[in-house]
Each structure stands twice: as structure tokens, then as C-alpha cells.
Design goal:
Alpha-Beta Plaits, alpha+beta
Amino acid sequence: MMLIERLYTDDKDAVWHGVIDRLKGRGTRTVQPLYVSDLKGQKYLSVVFHTDVIDDCAMFLVDNVAICRNVNDTQTIMLLKPVFLPMPGDRPKDLERYSLYIKVNPKHYPSVYNEILHHEFEVNCFPNYVAYAFGDYDILATFLARDLDAIKGYVKAHLKSLSGVDGVIINKIRRTELLTSKATWRENQRSLLYIPPWLSKKMDDHYLYDIDPPSEEYMGLTGAMTDEL
């Protein structure tokens, strides 16, 4: 199971460093902090966890996350049916990362979720992660795109036109830092990998797609991972 713990704060830099100091490389047998992200314009940081025992995760959050200095409030979001998608092998190397918050009418949950998964994407704008996150918004998707205009174009053409989509918020991901080892992160990605049928055919034809992309490129990391983790 994956979940997001949002840490609301007036001092994101202080909480950012506090999360890294307290959580990096310090998972337990049943709770693993994966990474922390900072969305431009939002007053919170998002810490993503994988857990096998939800009660253990609750205690881990209480003991290690909520008590970080300068945290004013918290919010826990369960991620349901999360999947990672392969990246085009011929993608540009300077893509930006965006998080989409999608509000959907309940009877259209499956059709919108599946449209994101099965739309034949291009190298300049494509999804890499999708999950249900019922609450303030219903579907969370992470995209890599050439720039803001590219992701806005995708949203207008392929999301806002769908039946049941009531709204889409585009958030640029400002920075992300891995909190676990490269090996654990890759294992988590691969365990949730989904290859759409159209993409499977192209992979069979030796069309170049990465099912295990470099973690540094995916996250836009700068010095975030060390060999000893």
C-alpha cells in the first residue's frame, strides 16, 4: 500500500531538511519512506510511503513525521490502484515533472483512469504514474512534459474533454528527493509496473521504452541519492 503524508508549513525549506534528516534511509521492516516532493505554489510538502501494515505506518507517522519542526498541519492520502508506466526511450532529457489533481464524477472513475493509462502518448508529454486518491481530488497522475504549454495542451485535449471530468489542477514539481535506496525504489516501481497493450506491441517490435528508467532522471534529483543508502 502507498500513501502520501502532506506536511503543511510556512517554512518549506526547514521542513524539507527536517524530513531528509529524520527519514532518509530510516525505514522499518513494514514502513518505507520513498521520497519527498515539493510542488510549486503549494503550502505543503508531500512524503510518499510504502507500507505493508497500516497501523505500523500510523505509528511511524506520529513518531517521526508529524513532529517535524515547523509543521502546522498534516493530511494523509491513501493511494489506491497505483501504477507506474514505462518511459519512451527516445524522450528528451530535459523534461519537467508535473502532478495533476483530477476531480471526477464517481460513475466515471474507471473510464478516466483507464483513458490516462491507455492513451497512446508522445515523447514530449506522457504519464509516468497514476493512482486513485479519493478526497479533494479523485485521481492523481504524474506527467513528464516538455514545458507547461505541453501539459496544458494534453489536459485540454485529452482530459477536460472526457465525460465526468469536473476539473484538473496542474502542479509543477519543484524538487524531489529519494528517501530510500535506489534498489528499494526500483523494486517498488517494478512491482507496480503496467504496460498498456499498445505499448506492449511496440516493445515487442523493439520500439525503445524504458521499464526501469534512471531514478535520477525520473525524479529530477540533484545529489539526492548516495551509494551507501
